[in-house]
Write a structure and sequence with these properties.
The chain has about 180 residues and is an all-alpha fold. The chain has helices at about 1-5, 10-25, 30-45, 50-65, 70-85, 90-105, 110-125, 130-145, 150-165, 170-184.
């Protein structure tokens, strides 16, 4: 209904389309992809780089949820390239984390680790401690999958320490759970 009301082809419409794409990510990926594609087309016409980057990121998420990893990676790469031009390091790190997740799901653990390490570096650069802890935890997971429990524990403990510093109870619980599994 809101989209029907706002027919003007402007950045507000792009943002609305992206909002709708995000709101349907978990329930209807095809609808999410449709909204994101419309947002991208309009952003491209208007030379609205942020809209292009966000719509591509949203498409990447939708394809990720659909387990279409090839399409997802293509969208995340284009999104990341645009975010680099915009200097948005938070989103660059987000894209890198998704590369890590995709590679993990494909069993490509070395590529996964490489992506998480890049994301970790960006998050440390910008001082995003919560996402730094997330990257460390994901690296611990990969080392666990590889059977390298010593390194896995090292990364889980680094993530735990940061989560304690920032009082992230959920992050602490996740790390302690993973550490418990290793010891089990």
């Amino acid at each position: 209904y809101i989209l029907q009301e706002h027919t003007e082809k402007d950045t507000s419409r792009i943002n609305l389309l992206i909002d709708f794409a995000e709101s349907t990510l978990e329930t209807d990926q095809n609808k999410s992809i449709k909204y994101a594609a419309e947002a991208y087309e309009l952003a491209n016409i208007l030379h609205f780089k942020k809209g292009k980057a966000e719509s591509l990121y949203c498409s990447g998420l939708a394809y990720y949820y659909k387990v279409d990893y090839q399409q997802s990676m293509e969208c995340f790469q284009k999104s990341m390239d645009t975010y680099e031009a915009l200097g948005n390091k938070n989103r660059i790190a987000d894209c890198l984390v998704y590369f890590g997740k995709i590679y993990k799901n494909l069993g490509k653990y070395l590529l996964s680790l490489e992506s998480y390490k890049k994301a970790l570096k960006v998050n440390e650069e910008i001082g995003n401690k919560q996402e730094t802890a997330v990257c460390l935890k994901y690296m611990g997971i990969i080392y666990e999958y590889q059977g390298n429990y010593t390194l896995s524990l090292e990364y889980y403990n680094k993530a735990l320490k940061i989560n304690e510093e920032i009082n992230n109870e959920q992050g602490k619980a996740n790390c302690l759970h993973n550490i418990g599994i290793i010891y089990q």
